[in-house]
Amino acid sequence: MSELAVHLAGSSRIEEPRSARRSDEEVLAAIAGGDDQGLAELYDRYGRLAYGLAYRVLHDQALAEDAVQDAFLAIWRSADGYRRERAKPSTWILTLVHRRAVDLVRREDLRRAEQLDETPEAAATSVPEEADLREKRTAVQAALRELPQDQRQALELAYYGGFTQSELAERLGVPLGTIKSRMFAGLSRLRELVPE
Fold first, then answer.
1. Which H or E run includes 84?
2. In this structure, are residues 151 and 183 in contact, taking their beta carbons and an 8 Å threshold?
3. If pLDDT is split at 50, 70 and 90, which confidence band does 145 have?
4. 111 with 145, same domain?
5. In angstroms, how far is CA 69 from the centroid of its own chain?
6. 165: burial class by Cβ within 10 Å (0-12, 13-18, 19+)?
7. What are the tens digits of pLDDT across the range 26-74?
């Protein structure tokens, strides 16, 4: 997910004057109403801070990027669950990021513990695991074909072509926020189409 790291290094998006921007609450309400651009707007505001928090918890760039992406997908899915009386939007967002990061720490600790506990007989399970991996790849490719062309194109170029979000925006001649929205929407739909 190098495109996330590149974006975190600096967004090419021109910032609107503070007075012209929607409040965080307005953006969350817009996301709850299906506004994909709202998610990109929120990411521009909190992506760097979210990554810093995740990295402090995980001490791993790739895992921190995963935690941030998972958290923003959760925001997109559950923006209607935000309650102003419980927390400020920034607190709610960073809490989601922190939870995802802690979950990843636990998962990685469990994975490492399982690797230490493996016995030589466990090596015989590699053939079924490879078959399962091939099956998952096939399912992902089939799901990609079901996405709208613009979402599929953005995801394929990013993940298979290695392009950053900024490079995609330039290559496709669309705003960076549009690329972000397409990728978030496409990833969300893939999660629905491909069971874990």
1. none
2. yes
3. confident
4. no
5. 2
6. buried
7. 999 999 998 878 888 999 999 999 999 999 988 889 889 989 998 999 8
CATH number at residue 133: 1.10.10.10
Strand residue runs (E) in 61-184: none
How many distinct structural domains can be found in the chain? 2
Nearest of 8, 62, 42 to residue 177 by alpha carbon:
42
17 and 83 both lie in a single domain: yes
- Predicted local distance difference test score (pLDDT) of residue 2: 42
Question: Which one, of 114, 104, 50, 39, lies nearest residue 77 by Cα?
Answer: 39
Sign (positive/negative) of CA torsion 16, 11, 166, 4? negative
Give residue for tokens 């091939």. Answer: 134
Helix 24-32 and helix 36-58, axial crossing angle in degrees, nearest 10: 110
Residue 7 clears pLDDT 50, i.e. is over it: no
Contacts of 95 (CB under 8 A, 6+ apart): 87
pTM over 0.90: no
Q: What are phi and psi of 35, to 5 degrees?
A: -80, 100
